[in-house]
Write a structure and sequence with these properties.
Elements (H helix, E strand, L loop, with lengths): L6 E7 L6 H10 L5 E7 L6 H11 L3 E5 L5 H9 L6 E4 L4 E2 L4 H10 L5 E3 L2 E4 L3 H10 L2 H4 L3 H4 L4 E3 L6 E3 L1 H6 L10 H11 L4 E3 L5 E4 L4 H21 L3
Parallel strand pairs: 1-2, 1-4, 2-3, 6-10, 7-11
Antiparallel strand pairs: 4-9, 5-11, 6-9, 8-10
Length: about 240
């Protein structure tokens, strides 16, 4: 494995039994093949961890990492310390990525067009309530001016989901803030922008994100987002 150009993918998981096998196969299929994939599990009580470990025994590029602190920031930072890539990506477990997702993003990073790249989200669901939630999360009325949820244009943005980063960014501005249970990527992207780095949204990197399938789950998700916004604003006064 060529260590120089390797890309490190970091994926937090917790009780993802329904999605994890499909997710692992999606990661294996992504081009280029020169990658390492860290599944960072926060103590799943279902078969998530066992499934990851079974794949890790078969594939050299798959790694299982236990995250006793459970939260994304802690897990990402732990896996980052093990990573060897020139580029690092934080990926989501409820998401389907096109096979050329990494290839397109790496081309933009290699050409210095940006320091971090991501794509817009296509919100999907297999339930009737979920379809309503997906429609709301794709509307500016529902989510405000969040470009990656409402736009498909190629443009520089304040934030992008499931982003691929140049690894040296972390040397300059630090890792994820472990005080943040939610919004950790938002706060990190604020620091990226403040340091003069550029985040590029590329339409061809569009991913399919499976939304919560009930209003109760959606409320819980956004209540947590809202609860941590004051701490983010305190940390990033701008």
């Amino acid at each position: 494995m060529n260590q120089k150009n390797i890309i490190s993918l970091i994926i937090p998981t917790f009780n993802e039994e329904r999605y994890v096998e499909q997710l692992i196969n999606n990661m294996i299929a992504l081009e280029p093949a020169n990658k390492e994939v860290f599944f960072v599990d926060g103590g799943s009580s279902d078969k998530t961890a066992l499934t990851i470990q079974q794949y890790a025994a078969q594939y050299e590029k798959i790694h299982y990492v236990h995250n006793p602190e459970k939260y994304v920031s802690n897990g990402f930072n732990k896996a980052f310390s093990l990573s060897k890539g020139k580029y690092v990506a934080l990926m989501g477990a409820h998401t389907k990525y096109p096979d050329d997702y990494l290839k397109i993003g790496l081309a933009a990073l290699e050409s210095n067009e940006a320091d971090a790249v991501g794509g817009p989200l296509q919100h999907i669901s297999n339930t009737e309530k979920g379809e309503v939630i997906a429609a709301c999360m794709s509307s500016s009325f529902g989510v405000g001016n969040t470009e990656f949820r409402t736009s498909k244009k190629r443009m520089y943005v304040d934030s992008a989901p499931f982003a691929i980063y140049k690894k040296d960014i972390f040397d300059q501005i630090g890792l994820f803030d472990t005080q943040l249970v939610r919004n950790q990527d938002d706060e990190f992207h604020y620091r990226i922008n403040a340091a003069g780095y550029r985040i590029l949204m590329i339409p061809e990197m569009e991913t399919e994100y499976v939304v919560r399938d009930s209003f109760k789950k959606l409320f819980s998700q956004y209540f947590q987002y809202g609860s941590y916004k004051p701490l983010v604003l305190k940390k990033v006064k701008s």
